[in-house]
Design goal:
mainly alpha, Butyryl-CoA Dehydrogenase, subunit A, domain 3, 8 helices, binds 2-acetamido-2-deoxy-beta-D-glucopyranose
């Protein structure tokens, strides 16, 4: 009787001990999911918290696929740039707007439209890269960089003292936001290019 319970105890001890070893070694695999993939990829960006937040709704699509991540980063940037462009262009109709403010808003709307154009062709080009045409990565890098420059040019137009406080705050807050998202996308694209072009170049 005593012996039997001892054996049961020993068997139980042996089993649970092995089990705990099992779960420990299984943990890194269990946490290797798309959330952690996005987090670690975003570490290479200038605004990692914003990067993680803006890409998290694409987690299911991204999984742990670098190409999907790069595509999602450009798509997110395009979406934000589009709503920002709409917002800024509507401000041109604001009441009591001064001529210089009107001009700055017009210029910014043109810059943002240029940025949108660069981002939309980048989406198409990245689709071709995903189809294994890695040489087109140069275009994507150039165009997203041009989009970022256009956004910063808009911001320059609002740096003057002549600006009405409310309009200046409204525009700069939104354009800074889209420029940070664009900067993140550029970092992810550059990272993708560095990893994949090197692998595709015959040595
Ligand atoms: C991914 O793993 C982390 C733990 O490392 C967990 O907190 C998170 O909920 C997991 N996410 C998904 C989508 O499974
Ligand atoms: C986690 O995922 C990455 C790719 O996203 C892969 O390279 C790595 O081997 C995976 N690690 C484990 C422990 O499965
Ligand atoms: C990653 O996504 C790309 C683009 O959708 C696809 O062509 C590729 O097969 C995917 N890779 C893996 C390992 O699933």
């Amino acid at each position: 009787m005593r012996n039997t319970s001892l054996y049961i105890f020993l068997a139980f001890f042996y089993f649970t001990n092995n089990l705990s070893i099992f779960t420990e070694s299984a943990q890194p695999i269990a946490s290797n999911n798309s959330t952690n993939f996005i987090k670690s990829s975003c570490r290479s960006t200038r605004y990692p918290t914003l990067c993680i937040k803006s890409l998290s709704s694409y987690a299911t699509k991204i999984q742990q696929n670098e190409t999907q991540l790069a595509q999602a980063a450009i798509q997110v940037t395009f979406n934000v740039a589009q709503s920002t462009t709409t917002f800024v262009s509507k401000l041109a109709k604001a009441k009591g707007i001064k001529p210089r403010e009107f001009q700055a808003i017009k210029d910014c709307t043109n810059n943002m439209a240029g940025s949108l154009n660069q981002l939309s062709r980048s989406i198409v080009e990245m689709g071709r890269v995903a189809g294994q045409d890695l040489m087109r990565m140069d275009n994507v890098q150039t165009w997203i960089s041009t989009a970022l420059t256009a956004e910063n040019t808009c911001l320059d137009g609002f740096s003057g003292d002549f600006m009405n406080g409310n309009i200046k705050v409204a525009v700069t807050r939104r354009v800074i936001y889209v420029s940070q998202i664009t900067s993140n996308a550029l970092a992810l694209i550059n990272r993708y290019a560095a990893r994949h072009k090197a692998a595709a170049t015959p040595s």
